Fold:
Amino acid sequence: MTDLKDPAREAARQALIAKRLRKRAAAPAARITPRPADAEVPLSYAQERVWFMDQIAPGEAAYHIAVPLRVRGPLDVAGLRSALAGLTARHESLRTRFPADADGRPTVVVEEAVEVPLTVTEAADADAARALVDAASAEPFDLATGPLLRALLIRLAADDHVLFLGKHHIV
Structure:
């Protein structure tokens, strides 16, 4: 039977790991070059499937991702808007929309900037907030015009909120 803790094997394994690490450190890091802003971007196969399903059943909420978050304590609404703007500025996928071309095929359009709609409302209690979240979750996205991310802030009290983030699965 072979002992897995054999000192000779362990030394050989350590030497092999060290050799591979030296080789990796000597190799130049791969550079990621940004694509030109006007470059055509194809949809992934998964995006094509989701786009096609949306054409068959527009407005269906099956591909909506709903994230309701309870936020307790002071909340700076202007800061939240700024954070959402920073999020979309940083992540190209959140600025993407999917119109059809002249032949009816889906295309990818990445906007320079997109404002995430943040609706601020009030609810009397958690049940009323839940109803608002359910309604927001079912609200359809227009893949052609976007945006494909939206936010709803429900104020329950001065220091108690529900932040709903809704996003389409295609992005």
Remarks:
- The chain has a mean pLDDT of 92.
- Residues 75 and 159 are 7 Å apart (CA to CA).
- The chain has four helices and six strands.
